[in-house]
């Protein structure tokens, strides 16, 4: 049992004692002993207080070609079908902020400047940006324990790569939602570990959505019968909020249950949360374009305290959770900027990996982001609430982005609901609670999946999905096949009769409408042609080769 | 023998056949099979020419907060002691360039824009920046063979990390100059390989400078007697131009000799060249501030064709050279931006590593650099030479940076020449041909290094150097100790009686003058106190503990 007192005294040393054995065997090989560090000086040495620095090969900032950066930014994301003009017109005014050569005066600690950010800098990230990200964590996901920190990374792919480097070796198994962002497997496989699937409940019911806890518990209680050849050195990789590809979100109750199971079996939890800020209010088929964000019925306070889902960090009594966030979805993917929050021992180990690989995330990316957060915070305080926290401006922007995704979701859903194929019940449209993806579950005719043999049934599902894909490509709609996002196809093929579609990228409502129509046409063809004499193409019994 | 005809037909397949066995055993574990790739489609499928894209989770660019970036840049680096004011004054005009939301018209392929660069993008880097870096390679280091390419990385540390990931496993040994940028060892050790030192000739003679080829040849001919336990799977890591820390540069003749040795023994060559553009004309003690760059006696053509030293790529008939460049020294370190040039097979393997780690270098860093190169190129064509190549503007900037480093070198050297300790011959100042570092060789009194025992002599050298370090810290001067930059201290301690100093970072000439004085004071103390009854501090016989 962890008591409150334990929590307050949870220290670096305790984290080290508890989690050192969870690290990859190779991690201790990452010995960094920078040549410029001076050690062992005599105690009575009287060091000069201002020595002339002739050591490191750092160019003076006057040698940088860059003198000043100015950024024009949006007050709100462009609205679908009503996008802003592509260029800044002479005389048009936009709000802007700067990255000066030197920050001065009272803003020095919050506003990043060229002299610092464009120089060699800290492996853990620029201190001002770290402080902003700490505030992001604190505002909506305050950890229970004190001794946590953040590390700025070069985006979530970099975070995943570093975290896998830290934990995974040939003894490690990473438990994954059976459908997931499968790139995780490449990282794990390269580190010589393996991934195993955990059953996922994909439904419209908020309580049951997400990892099947009965399955998880049984799996861990009976690990050696499930996987007799695998050691029980485990990491759970979970996208708990707005799961990719299914869009489901774990309830807080479910998170607590999963957390307890992980504690019992000493499982490290990697909580990847790229989509969490894109909260989507319930779709209303009777008033399809209704958007509570635009009606102003969702205030910033409601957004932060009611809509955003609490991270595993808020229930983490032991420091076994690593939370991965990214600026790709609410900022820009090209920033290649994200962060990891975790206990200080793990952050230190991750920082050591940074030192040996990318050193630090781009200083330009860090400063352009840092100063945006600073600008938005300052402006929010000035224009909306003088007592607001500096980070509120950023959450206000995140809320606007969520509002625009809600609008995009509405437009696409409305278009899909109006299609013939939807009306004919050729598929179900599952509503995501969050994120940028929705799930189209293909209703299979019984005669398509008729075999009594399990393996053959799976082939039949795959072949039908592949036939649908071919139709989609001809009618003009490009989704992702659910079965391409399985950790173990054999384990999940029974449930892989779905498509992932996104409402992220289109420029106009017309495109979504066209996409829905083209999708509908493909479903009509599937239902008319498949397994009849109208069937086109000579698809093998197992569907497309190589897929 | 490779004939001209072979060179012209050197293909990806041939590179693969020749170099696949040089890769790390783990590289083939890096299997990436993105879930969005569609394979095996029937030949008679009639794909829609404009399908609606509902696949990837890419935010539309109108969701990015950034609308327009404008950068004020310098025409020339700030001059030591005459730095520009720290802030842009109202009304002051600077040249500037933009990163627009959308590039349009004729500049579309050369000017990077927010819509592309701030989005998810190519693992190999933005095509426009890749093309600029290809031009950088072609202009001064045209490879002999055709089938080479470039990969944009997140800076040289990232390049080193990726290249070590690619080649090094427990069977690999990386041959290094005995004094070098020792961070390479961390990468190699982590990949479970080892580093061994190669003797370096550090002298003022341009012909003999650099790797001792007699030693190298003997080492490789008699590998199994030198290192009976190590397989002969070898990589050479060399900083051929303006070596770190010694500042020496290999002559072209020496490079050819080394290249032939590497071919004979199937050694991969990693040519790291962070300092190559910082060419320093000969220092003239009689006219110490003479700077041929400022006299305009060095034209761009002279700079490019005479001063810049030819890369190993220019003599690489087999495709075994990987050239590492960085934008840190002539751009800004905080860009975290560099590139690797190599044969197309190796570039493809490196790109695969990118996909699995950082994905791509920051799009903001890439676009701010790309558009600077575009701006400088366009302006150079307009103002100087309408027939110039687009990349000449960048080389012109590099030349100005080299000019400023020459000035900084002059100021520091003048100051050092004027010190008492220099006049008393307490040390020698070795002149670098290139880069930002100089070498101070400590003249040791015979009585300091008096032991007949080899090991004890090495301890005596270390102790004297540590005593000097203590004096330096008290008098106020912070250099790097040569022995901290050894691959194998035991191998090199005899030759490690030197300091590395830099003329990169100071703000003013006064600081260099103060640094020289403080250094001189430390040398005076060393010579007065060391091994006399005036000796301070109770240094152990092996010098500072832990150093």
TrEMBL record, chains A, B:
Signal peptide: none annotated. Keywords: Aminotransferase, Pyridoxal phosphate, Transferase. GO terms for molecular function: 2-aminoadipate transaminase activity; aromatic-amino-acid transaminase activity; pyridoxal phosphate binding. Residues 112-510 form the Aminotransferase class I/classII large domain. InterPro entries: Aminotransferase_I/II_large, Class-I_PLP-dep_aminotransf, PyrdxlP-dep_Trfase, PyrdxlP-dep_Trfase_major. GO terms for biological process: aromatic amino acid family catabolic process; lysine biosynthetic process via aminoadipic acid; tyrosine biosynthetic process. The keyword Nuclease does not apply. It comes from Hanseniaspora guilliermondii. Belongs to the class-I pyridoxal-phosphate-dependent aminotransferase family. Its cofactor is pyridoxal 5'-phosphate. This is Related to Aromatic amino acid aminotransferase 2. It holds the Pfam family Aminotran_1_2.
């Amino acid at each position: 049992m962890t008591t409150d007192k334990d929590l307050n005294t949870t220290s670096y040393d305790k984290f080290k004692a508890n989690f050192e054995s969870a690290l990859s065997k190779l991690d201790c090989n990452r010995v960094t002993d920078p040549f410029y560090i001076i050690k062992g000086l005599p105690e009575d040495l009287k060091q000069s207080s201002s020595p002339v620095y002739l050591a490191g090969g750092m160019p003076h900032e006057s040698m940088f070609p860059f003198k000043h950066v100015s950024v024009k930014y949006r007050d709100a994301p462009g609205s679908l079908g009503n996008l802003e003009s592509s260029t800044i017109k002479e005389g048009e005014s936009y709000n802007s902020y700067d990255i000066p050569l030197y920050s001065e005066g009272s803003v020095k600690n919050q506003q990043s400047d060229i002299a610092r950010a464009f120089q060699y800098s800290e492996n853990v990230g620029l201190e001002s940006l770290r402080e902003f990200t700490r505030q992001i964590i604190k505002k909506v996901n305050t950890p229970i324990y004190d001794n946590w920190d953040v590390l700025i990374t070069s985006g979530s792919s970099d975070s995943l790569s570093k975290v896998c480097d830290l934990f995974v070796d040939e003894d490690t198994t990473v438990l994954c939602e059976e459908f997931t962002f499968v790139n995780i497997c490449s990282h794990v496989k390269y580190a010589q570990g393996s991934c195993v699937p955990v059953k996922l409940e994909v439904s419209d019911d908020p309580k049951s959505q997400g990892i099947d806890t009965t399955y998880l518990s049984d799996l861990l209680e009976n690990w050696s019968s499930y996987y007799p050849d695998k050691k029980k050195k485990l990491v759970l990789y979970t996208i708990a909020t707005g799961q990719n590809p299914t869009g489901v979100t774990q309830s807080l109750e479910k998170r607590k249950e999963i957390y307890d199971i992980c504690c019992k079996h000493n499982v490290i939890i990697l909580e990847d949360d790229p989509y969490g800020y894109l909260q989507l209010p319930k779709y209303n088929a009777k008033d399809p374009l209704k958007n509570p964000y635009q009606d102003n019925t969702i205030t910033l306070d409601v957004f932060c305290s009611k809509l955003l889902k609490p991270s595993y960090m808020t229930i983490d009594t032991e420091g076994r959770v690593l939370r991965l966030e990214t600026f790709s979805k609410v900022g820009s993917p090209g920033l290649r900027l994200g962060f990891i929050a975790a206990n200080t021992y793990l952050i230190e180990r991750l920082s050591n990996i940074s030192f040996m690989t990318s050193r630090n995330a781009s200083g330009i990316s860090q400063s352009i982001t840092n100063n945006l957060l600073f600008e938005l915070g300052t402006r929010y305080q000035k224009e909306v609430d003088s007592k607001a926290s500096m980070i509120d401006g950023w959450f206000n922007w995140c809320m606007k982005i969520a509002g625009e995704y809600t609008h995009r979701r509405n437009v696409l859903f409305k278009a899909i609901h109006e299609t013939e194929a939807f009306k004919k019940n050729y598929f179900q449209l599952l509503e995501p609670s969050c994120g940028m993806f929705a799930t189209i579950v293909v209703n299979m005719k019984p005669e398509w999946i008729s075999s009594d043999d399990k393996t053959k049934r799976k082939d039949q599902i795959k072949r039908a999905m592949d036939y649908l894909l071919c139709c989609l490509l001809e009618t003009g709609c490009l989704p992702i096949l659910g079965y391409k996002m399985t950790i173990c196809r054999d384990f999940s093929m029974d449930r892989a009769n779905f498509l992932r579609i996104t409402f992220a990228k289109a420029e106009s409502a017309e495109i979504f409408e066209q996409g829905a129509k083209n999708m509908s046409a493909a479903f009509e063809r599937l239902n008319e042609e498949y397994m009849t004499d109208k069937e086109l193409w000579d698809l093998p019994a197992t569907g497309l080769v190589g897929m």
